[in-house]
Amino acid sequence: MSELIFPPLQCGHLEVKGESRFFPVNRIFCVGRNYAAHAAEMGVEVDREAPFYFTKSPLAYQPSGSVVPYPPGTRNYHYEMELVVLMGANTFKCSAEKALDSVYGFACGLDMTRRDLQLRAREKGRPWDLGKDFERSAVFAPATRAKDFGAIAGQRIQLAVNGATRQDARLSDLIWRVDELIAHLSRFYRLQPGDAIMTGTPAGVGPLMPGDSIVGMIDGLEPVKVEIASAA
Ligand code: MN
Fold it and tell me: Structure pTM?
């Protein structure tokens, strides 16, 4: 084996409900504007032409229950509550009919966002990386296996800040369903076990301050929790 100059990065990993082993987190794909009411609050129209994506480095993953410092370079740090799909099989050019067979499970997740940097980039037609892909920006709760969760239907997806509800929608409000997203994404990537897909946020996104406490919930899944600390 080749000798390395320093140890390679280690993947983060997720607890799984009812399972002693952990789920390693590989690539993180994120879907933009997948709830009509959220697209409207962002001042953009939804089109049904095709979903679009951005990515977060696996280094962005942070387990639920953490205290997260207010990130550098922003004055408008937002929460976005999302359903996370966790892939359990190699998937390439699959049909929507077969797509759910490749899902290991689901989790509640937070797509933490430096909104000022994202919007500045958007206005100039630049990539969103500074706004979206930064340390601790993908907070995932413990996973639930797909067979334990059951079918994706009208489950409620909610988020509260300091106990006050800010986001409240249903998974049936997703513009692109999970099977459609996997089928579409697998035309462009060879999806692998460990890959995660953040499926987009409902309306009600907003800013956070140090001291805030966030809880995100989806019926049938473990809640995702995070506390915001002062800037490091
Ligand atoms: Mn998002």
Answer: 0.97
Q: How far is the CA of 198 from the centre of ligand 1 (A)?
A: 7
Structure confidence at residue 10 as a pLDDT band (50, 70, 90): confident
pLDDT at 168 over 80: yes
Interval between CA 169 and ligand 1 midpoint (Å): 14
Q: Please write the tens of the pLDDT for every residue from 135-164.
A: 999 999 999 999 999 999 999 999 999 999
DSSP alpha helices (H): ranges in the chain?
A: 36-41, 96-99, 115-123, 129-132, 146-149, 178-185
Segment 109-116 shows an average pLDDT of: 98
Q: How far is the CA of 132 from the centre of ligand 1 (A)?
A: 8
131 CA to middle of ligand 1, Å? 11
Domains contained in the chain, CATH given: 13-229 (3.90.850.10)
- Cα of 94 to ligand 1 centre, how many Å? 24
Q: What's the 3-state SS for 70-110?
A: CCCCCCCEEECEEEEEEECCCECCCCHHHHHHHEEEEEEEE
- Give the Å distance between the CA of 147 and the centre of ligand 1: 25
